[in-house]
């Protein structure tokens, strides 16, 4: 089992590698940063990832946190090579990753119509395969391993064999076990996951959930999960860039003399379920701006009326939010 790190304080803000580990993703305006989608070789993407990781290690408040996944292209490879190249000790970084999807886009951005960039498989065989792949790439650094996008339809919430395999991973490797959730059913999925036990022990230590100023429907379930002792991780805090175009958010950011991204992430950090939040930054400047969210969160915690006002003015219908998200194109 991996020995406990001397610094167990887990940072409130981390770097998600979804948009840095592969040439295409659904975030808005990627051409403006990476250039044409047909000119993003592995070397270029890895160099960009290294720049943002440099910024994370230079600016993190305490122990840097990086979140990968088997399906985020070469994210685990990029992170593993970076950490070893810079002689980072496992106790000096917090690394989370995920299994359940396989990246199949072959480093292409534009695929034939209907062709997927990643394919889901929540079978025991795939878990055993992918956990070994993760272990090979970054195993000595991993603190948390998560089911990638657990759903009722995939069967992962009902499979006793999967639950036993995950529990064995926790015992054998010393990795915490979590799940990520998506869709309008996030709250229902999370509540079901909270019920799962193996040998009388709760299986899941954490949940990674979509929550932002536009999509707030999972809030009550996240509060229940936090009260039960689960670690709450928020992904897509900027709604793949959509919140940055929201006029209400832009106006409040002006009033508070901050950037829209810092305000949006600060509103999340100020929530009562005490979340940790992943930045989807793909440039050092974006990351530095995102990290200022902690300061905004403190202001909002002291002015609950303002926080509630911002939340109420920005929220969308959950079904509409997810329909819009599903229409975003890989770019």
Automatic annotation (TrEMBL):
InterPro entries assigned to the protein according to its UniProt record, in alphabetical order: AKR2_Oxidoreductase, NAD(P)_OxRdtase_dom_sf, NADP_OxRdtase_dom
Q: NADP-dependent oxidoreductase domain spans which residues?
A: 59-294
Q: What is this protein called?
A: NADP-dependent oxidoreductase domain-containing protein
Report the source organism. Cyclotella atomus
């Amino acid at each position: 089992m991996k020995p406990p790190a001397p610094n167990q304080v887990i940072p409130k803000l981390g770097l998600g590698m979804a948009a840095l580990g592969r040439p295409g993703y659904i975030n808005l305006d990627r051409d403006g940063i990476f250039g044409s989608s047909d000119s993003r070789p592995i070397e270029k993407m890895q160099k960009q990832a290294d720049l943002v990781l440099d910024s994370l290690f230079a600016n993190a408040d305490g122990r840097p946190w990086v979140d990968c996944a088997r399906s985020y292209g070469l994210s685990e490879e990029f992170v593993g090579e970076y950490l070893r190249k810079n002689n980072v000790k496992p106790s000096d970084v917090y690394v989370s990753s995920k299994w359940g999807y396989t990246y199949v886009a072959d480093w292409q951005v534009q695929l034939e119509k209907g062709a997927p960039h990643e394919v889901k498989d929540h079978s025991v065989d795939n878990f055993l395969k992918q956990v070994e792949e993760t272990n090979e790439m970054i195993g000595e650094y991993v603190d948390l391993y998560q089911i990638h996008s657990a759903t009722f339809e995939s069967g992962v919430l009902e499979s006793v064999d999967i639950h036993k395999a995950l529990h064995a991973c926790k015992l054998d490797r010393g990795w915490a076990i979590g799940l990520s959730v998506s869709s309008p059913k996030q709250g229902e999925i999370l509540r079901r996951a909270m019920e799962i036990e193996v040998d009388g022990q709760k299986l899941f230590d954490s949940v990674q959930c979509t929550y932002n100023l536009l999509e707030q429907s999972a809030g009550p379930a996240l509060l229940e999960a936090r009260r039960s002792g689960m670690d709450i991780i928020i992904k897509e805090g900027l709604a793949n860039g959509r919140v940055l175009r929201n006029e209400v958010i832009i106006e409040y950011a002006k009033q508070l003399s901050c950037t829209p991204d810092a305000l949006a992430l600060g509103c999340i950090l100020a929530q009562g379920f005490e979340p940790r939040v992943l930045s989807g930054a793909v440039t050092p400047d974006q990351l530095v701006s995102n990290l200022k969210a902690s300061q905004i969160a403190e202001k909002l915690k002291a002015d609950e009326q303002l926080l509630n006002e911002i939340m109420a003015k920005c929220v969308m219908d959950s079904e509409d939010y997810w329909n819009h998200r599903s229409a975003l194109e890989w770019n």
